[in-house]
Every structure is written in C-alpha cells, then in structure tokens.
C-alpha cells in the first residue's frame, strides 16, 4: 500500500538516443510490495527514507536510505517495504539506444543492481524538476528528455559504491514455474496446466512453489496479471476491457473485482489518479505533505 505522485510521458514524438518515460515519488506503508513484474525500460529507484528488500534473479538486497536499485528491461523483480520502517522512494524510468551504454559506464555495470549513493539529493531534485511538465507538448518532451540526461549524469558522477546482495537459492522447479508464468500469463493458465507443461505432479509443484515463494501459484499468477494491468493503465490509453484481455482475464467483471480487491480502488480510479496534475512546482516538503493527505492504495509502483 502506498501514496504516490506520478508523471508519465504519454507518447514520444522524437526518436532520440535517450528518452524520459515516467517518474514519481511514493510513500509506502508497512509491507507494501510490488511484483513480481517485468518492465520494458530501465527504472532507477532512490530510497529517501526507511528500508526494504529488493529481489532480482537469484539475488536479495536489504536496502535503506541513500541506496539506489535498478530495474533492467526484461528482468522479473520484486520489492517489499519493511514492516517497521517502510520506505519512501523516488524513481525515474528511461529508455533509448544510449541507455545501455550509460548504465555500463555506471556502478551498475556487470549486472550490478544496487549501490550506495554518495548524495541522493541530485536525483530527487531532478525528479521534482520533471513534475511541472505534465502537458503533452513537444517542448515539454524536450524538457523531460533533458532531465533524463541530468539524472543519468548524476549517476555517472556519483562517488558511491556497489551494494552487494545475498545469494537466494530457489529450486529449479520454482524458477521454471516463475519463468513459465511470466511468459504465458496472458493465456488461460491453470495450476494443472502449468504442472503438465513442466511434466510434474500438480500437488508436488504447488508444495515446492509455496515453500520457496511463500505464496500459492494461483495468487502469484494473479499478482503478475494485476501488476501488469496497473502498468498498462498508467502507461497507455487502451480501454480497461482491452487491458483486462491482454493480461489474461476473459471477463471484465472478474478483472474489475480482482483489481479492486488487490489494489483497493477501481481500474478507472487508478488510471485517473496516475494522471493527477495537481503537483506542479512543489517543494519536497510540500510534496510529502500532499502525499500524507492522499488516499492509500496498493501496488502502484
């Protein structure tokens, strides 16, 4: 569960080597989680307060204020706020042909995913500088792309250090199940069908998966679908019905009910909140104050 201020670029009019996609700041509640989910572009998170854990591939990272964590395109990731000191973080998403090269030149080279920053203020200032450019204009696109360059210049200049994670070993069967769900979540999936595809007994598969993931296969699949739907609602203008079909629901009624159950708000309300434009030219303290007044929701970022 979290409170969020969010800005996204609806569409790109320019073909550039580096482009801004979206950014935001979230104040999470205890045990707020996001994922497992796969993103299409890079997203760099900056932890401003509190602490939590980040999991990617077979690594688990315990992170706190001053740490950064990177989501790479195509990686399945999961992150969870601490139960006693939940985190507040900012993030900026970017893409383009130059993104890979910039990341390779940073502390995130060689498949590193987290680092300790020497100064997070530059990143936060850049995110705040993006918020006024909500209107979909050609000029604003230039301004947002400019801010993406500032953001990544700060990363390359950051005198921090790599943050090492803990090895988290999953059973090969659990990994295969996760990968299969990530590849086929939009299809009609059942636990029995997944077991058949992996040539194992259904009961054995369910038991192994729950032991390693602390969640049932059915709930995991539902989480993947709802997280993907939330991303599409915030990043596209496609209808709710179309998005429901794209993430594997053959009934809009069922999708709407499950989305409300997991997020605490309707899909329409979620989309409207993500397009809120009442956060122009605000300081960080003002932004925190507005976040405190905002309704609390689940699984936004």
Automatic annotation (TrEMBL):
Keywords for the protein's UniProt record, in alphabetical order: DNA-binding, Transcription, Transcription regulation
Cited InterPro entries: AraC-bd, Homeodomain-like_sf, HTH-like, HTH_AraC, HTH_AraC-typ_CS
Domain called HTH araC/xylS-type: residue spans: 175-273
UniProt cross-references to SMART domains, sorted A to Z: HTH_ARAC (SM00342)
A family per Pfam: HTH_18
Keyword field contains Transcription: yes
Top-level taxon: Bacteria
Name of this protein: AraC family transcriptional regulator
Native organism: Enterococcus hulanensis
Organism ancestry: Bacteria, Bacillati, Bacillota, Bacilli, Lactobacillales
